[in-house]
Design brief:
Blueprint: H1 2-39, H2 68-81, E1 86-92, H3 105-115, E2 119-125, E3 132-139, H4 146-161, E4 165-170, H5 177-196
Parallel strand pairs: 3-4
Antiparallel strand pairs: 1-2, 2-3
Helix pairs in contact: 2-5
């Protein structure tokens, strides 16, 4: 009789152990599947947005993000400085500058509204830290128009008040990567020296 009871206990213990092992195995499989899903690139939208009816003639795709003059300059700029800096293009001023913390809410809103729809032609950043180093504006003939002159004066003033280097380059037909590199690095050096004085 003892053998029968002992056999029953061993059977019950083995059954429980088997079920626990199966459950642990299934839990591990589920965890692995979840982890695998987390690492997969999400291709589907995370939330479905309601449809908005916009007439199809309102918007159209632009073919290029840079004008032909900006493309020429960017190629030379990236050849000259691409190994030293990350070069971003068409960056909103509000993504590089912000109103100071010592102003009222209404002053902050007013200052932000003045920069939110303006952009820098190019922004130089540190490759590893993404720290913003300087902005570059390519000044072509459109910068001689009265509204552009006002905009340029405002940007100069905003950058100066933020202790931020804004480098202006006069647009040309042909650029030398070495000349641009020298001009930008000299401008950065001069800017740092003027701030140190």
């Amino acid at each position: 009789m003892e053998w029968l009871a002992l056999g029953a206990l061993v059977f019950i213990g083995a059954t429980i152990l088997n079920r626990l092992t199966e459950r642990s195995s299934k839990e591990l499989e589920l965890k692995a599947a979840r982890k695998s899903q987390e690492h997969k690139l999400r291709l589907e939208p995370s939330a479905r947005l309601p449809e908005v009816n916009i007439p199809t003639s309102v918007y159209q795709t632009k073919q290029f993000i840079l004008s032909p003059a900006e493309q020429k300059f960017y190629k030379a700029l990236s050849q000259g400085l691409g190994s030293q800096f990350m070069i971003l293009m068409k960056v909103r001023v509000a993504d590089a500058l912000q109103p100071g913390s010592g102003v009222s809410k209404s002053e902050w809103a007013s200052a932000f509204n003045r920069i939110k729809s303006k952009h820098f032609d190019f922004l130089l950043c540190c490759h590893n830290s993404y720290e913003i180093i300087a902005a570059i504006e390519l000044d072509d003939s459109s910068h001689q128009q009265e509204n552009r002159i006002k905009r340029d004066k405002f940007l100069n003033s905003a950058c100066e008040s933020a202790n931020f280097a804004l480098i202006r380059i006069v647009a040309r037909q042909v650029y030398s990567a070495q000349e641009i590199k020298s001009a930008v690095l000299n401008s950065l050096r001069d800017y740092k020296l003027s701030k140190a004085a």
